Amino acid sequence: MTAKIRNRPLTASELDAFGNELDALRARTAATLGQADADYIRGIVKAVRYSGFAGRVLLFAGAIGGGTLWPWLLWPACIAGALLLALSKILENMELGHNVMHGQYDWMRDPQLNGKTYEWDIAGTSDNWRKTHNFKHHTYTNVRGMDDDIGYGLLRIFPEQRWRPFYLVQPLVAVVFALLFQWGVAIQDLKLGRWLAGKTSHAKMRALFRPVRRKILRQLLKDYLLFPLLAGPFFLPVLLGNLVANGLRNVWTYVIIFCGHFTADAETFAKESIRGESRGHWYLRQLRGSSNLAGGKLLNVLSGNLSHQIEHHFYPDLPANRYATMAVEVRAICARYGQHYNTGSLPRQFGQVIWRIVRHAFPSRPRPATAALQPAPQGG
Fold first, then answer.
1. Strand partners, 344
2. Is the pLDDT of residue 3 over 50?
3. Helical H runs in the chain?
4. How far is CA 59 from the centre of its chain?
5. Which of 84, 50, 81, 69 is nearest to 228 (CA)?
6. How far is residue 347's CA from residue 192's CA, in Å, rounded to a whole number?
7. 29 and 318 Cβ atoms separated by less than 8 Å
8. Average pLDDT in the 157-179 region?
């Protein structure tokens, strides 16, 4: 699918220098944060609010107006409303909620943008996301047995994952998972497999599920009961509009996240590879476990700037609107140290993801163990 990866082995001193250069870029960027960044994220808050309001108004107008006075209005207005509502949910999920919960805007001291307390418009709780994503995934990126995001417990994405007959149906499972992605996020930290295997007690599972159940009920009531009921006898088009908006958000989020981690050049790592991990090693692992998307400003915003997944994994707590500028220097640093900078168009990267899902549904041999994170001999 792609050209063979060419990564030059780095000596211990080169790894230190690699890490120091990337740390210096972080420090320079952090020193310039200010009003422009605050204005940007507040603009996103407004975009989420106004697009969501406009979407719901159009859904109501289409449902009520189309059902009474103007039948021609029904489907055009409902389709436009569902698309606007989907846009609002995508912006809130990707560019607002995800980035705020990383603490990217804590320096503003704005309680509405506090990374520790922000609750997003999705079935999963923010507290669980901060644990599974902010801590586990970003600390142990693509480390097998430590990063639960590798296949999300459902998919075999890498040949190093042990094959089971269940994986034969994973192309179908992947489609269902994309459509229901927010629900997968909601239950990820519950580890239902351990409970079904009797490794987690019923009492503990009830305690773990309690906050998840509250959040799920709140989302279901809001999107599939409260707003549809406001349309009275014309509740069905509003309900369907909400269902479509959530589905579009789910699929888009799935595509962006999978493109950021599961392309052909992305690597996984054994637990042993992070023992005594230096700062330079950590950056190198993040680089080799991440993938970028090339597509311009619109893609950057709609993806929550996860089109720059490499930069996000390097600097998860810096405002994501800075990643595009930082990427120029990050790419130059990688080139100086002979490291592959994994980037490509959305169709190209997602095509590689689809290939992985289909290919590794069948038995395959693990790739030869990589020495990527082992320092080369000094002077080598």
1. 293
2. no
3. 12-30, 35-60, 66-68, 74-91, 99-101, 126-129, 138-139, 170-179, 181-187, 192-196, 202-221, 227-230, 235-261, 279-288, 297-302, 309-314, 323-336, 346-359
4. 28
5. 81
6. 33
7. yes
8. 95
Q: What does DSSP assign to residue 8?
A: -
Whole-number Å distance between alpha carbons of 51 and 6: 44
For residue 193, what pLDDT band results from cuts at 50, 70 and 90?
confident
Whole-angstrom Cα distance, residue 335 to residue 339? 6
- Residue 271 contacts residue 145 (beta carbons within 8 Å): yes
Residues 227/56, Cβ–Cβ less than 8 Å: yes
Beta bridge partners of 293: 344
Least confident of 44-53, 223-232, 241-250, 306-315: 223-232
Residue count of the chain: 380
* CA distance linking residue 267 with residue 315, whole number of Å: 19
132-136, 148-152, 345-349: lowest mean pLDDT where?
A: 148-152
For residue 272, the tally of other CB atoms under 10 A from its CB is 9
Rounded distance between C-alpha atoms, residue 118 and residue 100, angstroms: 7
CA distance 124 to 44: 21
CA 139 from chain centre, in angstroms, equals: 15
Percent share of the chain, pLDDT over 90: 80
The model's pTM is 0.92
Distance CA 214, CA 67 (A): 34
